[in-house]
Write a structure and sequence with these properties.
16 strands, alpha+beta, single chain, 27% strand, 7-stranded antiparallel β-sheet, binds pyridoxal-5'-phosphate
Length: 361
């Protein structure tokens, strides 16, 4: 599948040097969005593609050679009443700082993170690069809705011997995004690959974790599945998460279970938000171990969640060649409630009682 990374032109770029961070905004080549839309295909692609190149970065470094880098993913949502708001950016700021410390990098200050993310979105919007609210999205519970995806990440200084990065760059790039999973409900398979090990980096949003995830997801797709689920490394028995998203099981008993966070599960902000929202609704939410046997035998509804995935129902889960369907493969009521509440808060159709949205426009 040909895919051009369609980044918006303004990028935030900071470097750690002499014990401090120095940031700036860089404006990559662009025309107005309307002019770009009217350009001949190849010409437009070349222009958009040129925004992905940076001639002043060291090619050989600890990120490109040894996977020493981390990233974040968050979104700005067009609001029903106009404007644009970012979902819980201070949470991503805190996790980014934890990830960087976990990789022995100097942490990027949380306040600077929130400001850089908000300003990057604003500056692109000022150039006309943004997405606007469309009331049509309400008809399919925002399944077809667009958003602005924000990707902050680190990039190491030059280096060849295996080392940690001590003077990284931090970049923030943004791009328009549609739904992550194309079909409504995912058919998942339990992979026998191991994503994260105790004492490893599973809790860090590091690039290197994604090597295994991308292999497992590629294999799942080749077998006709849309998602893969990882079990824990120590027992090969307890469910941990999806390829790049956390997981919930709504059991027949009425309990909503998400695997407890240890050092092998990525602490998703969507996951934490759903735990809160479900508790507010009076649902009995438990963060605990859940074995694959219990999950397959006791589940009424299952869904995965994350910034990119949103709330995606898992229609079936296959394990050792046996396929178990949940809720006849259809979206369950609890899943739909959770999804609609979260999407409603994000797109401004449900009151933001918790103050989760940072308005930037
Ligand atoms: C980013 C990520 C998630 C989801 O986190 P959110 O903050 O909800 O986007 C889940 N699992 C992994 C492995 C991740 O990298």
């Amino acid at each position: 599948m040909a895919f051009t990374l369609n980044s918006f032109p303004v990028v935030y770029k900071a470097k750690f040097e002499n014990d401090g961070w120095k940031g700036e905004f860089v404006e990559k080549p662009h025309k107005t969005p309307q002019e770009e839309a009217q350009m001949p295909g190849a010409e437009r692609e070349a222009l958009v593609e040129s925004r992905n190149f940076y001639s002043d970065l060291p090619l050989v470094n600890y990120s490109t050679q040894y996977g020493n880098s981390c990233f974040e993913g968050l979104k700005a949502f067009p609001q029903k009443d106009g404007g644009l708001a970012i979902f819980r950016p201070e949470q991503n700021a805190a996790r980014f700082a934890r990830s960087m410390k976990g990789l022995y990098m100097p942490a990027f200050p949380e306040g600077d993170f929130v400001q850089a993310v908000a300003e990057t979105v604003k500056k692109n919007a000022a150039l006309g690069f943004c997405v606007g609210y469309d009331a049509q999205w309400e008809k399919d519970s925002f399944a077809s809705a667009l958003s602005v995806y924000i990707r902050p990440f680190t990039f190491s200084e030059a280096g060849f011997t295996p080392e940690v990065s001590r003077e990284p760059w931090v970049f923030v790039v943004t791009m328009p995004m549609s739904a992550y999973f194309s079909s409504e409900n995912a058919n998942a398979v339990v992979t026998d690959r191991i994503r994260a090990t105790p004492k490893g980096t599973g809790w860090i949003k590091t690039a290197s974790n994604y090597v295994i995830s991308t292999l497992a997801k590629h294999e799942a797709r080749q077998q006709g599945f849309t998602e893969c689920i990882f079990l824990d490394a120590a027992n090969r028995r307890f469910v941990e998460e999806g390829s790049s998203c956390n997981i919930f099981f709504y059991l027949k008993s009425g309990e909503l279970v998400s695997p407890a966070l240890g050092d092998t599960v990525l602490p998703g902000i969507t996951r934490a938000s759903i735990v809160e929202l479900a508790r507010d609704r009076g649902i009995n939410v438990c963060e605990r171990e859940i074995s694959i046997e219990e999950a397959l035998g006791e589940t009424a509804e299952c869904f995965v969640c994350g910034t990119a995935a949103g709330v995606t129902p898992i229609g079936s889960l296959s394990h050792n060649g046996k396929k178990t369907a949940f809720n006849d493969g259809k979206t369950g009521d609890v899943t739909a409630q959770v999804r609609d509440t979260l999407k409603g808060i994000q797109y401004g159709t449900v009151p933001d009682a918790k103050g989760w949205m940072l308005k930037v426009l």
